[in-house]
Design brief:
Chain lengths: 113, 192
Amino acid sequence: MDLSLATRTEGDRTVVSVGGEIDVYTAPKLREQLIDLVSAGNYHLVVDMESVDFLDSTGLGVLVGGLKRVRAHDGSLELVCTQERILKIFRITGLTKVFPIHASVDEAIASGG
Amino acid sequence: MRRSTRRSRAAVESAGPADLPTSQLTTMAAVEVSFTPLPAHVRTARLIAAAVARRLGIEGALLDEIRLAVGEACSRAVAVHQRQAPTKPVTLTILDENDSLVVTVIDTAGDEQASETQPPEDPFELLTGASSDASGALDVLPSGFGLAVIAGLVDDLDVVRGPSGTVVRMSWKSPERDATARTTGAAEESPN
């Protein structure tokens, strides 16, 4: 399964809905999307990962890169994920401390990050 | 026949040649695949490993862990090959050894890959770039990140670096497989 990306605006947030597999092959596509959004002045991002089937450390790297980019503009990058198989890699790597992870897009937006 | 002694969880060796005897692997391998070091093939490798694991009765969270660990090991191998040996193949073997599933990923990208950068103790350092690789790319985690993830997933991990490359050997105990399942699996020669 390839990677699918869809973006929408909710208030001052840009929600990126990701589906499929984020790995060494597909991660560049997600990286380009995040770079494009930040370049266009969208500094408050919510990445919805509820439809992601697979995430590896290459994908984590892209999310870390996205967080660095928005932080450079005092922005935020919030994640939405409830899937245990995806959360596991965040726990193993300690990145649960770095990324705010929410149970829903609404919760991520309400967090006001 | 069981090969080596079981090492402690996530033991990592930095000495000794990458000398897993290929002939032994060949005779024991459930599946052995060589692939050109392209990112697209990492997914193929994951699918193969998952298919073999499923056939051995492995499902659920353990299957997800195997898929992730195999993906990390193959991504790492592809990355070092692309830098050092883009025309040589990466080899993946999957063995059903008694009560364990053993997956080995062998790169032949030489011995100039020993300088893998370890993940920082404090993950927040990833954001400051203090521990990032010399390339300075914002999106690239320290090169040792993949192995650190694998160490968090497998029951046993051996990393043997030698002059020809690195052997990453991962194994998972699969206690849920009972004798009946194994017998049935072995006798199952008819097409689907």
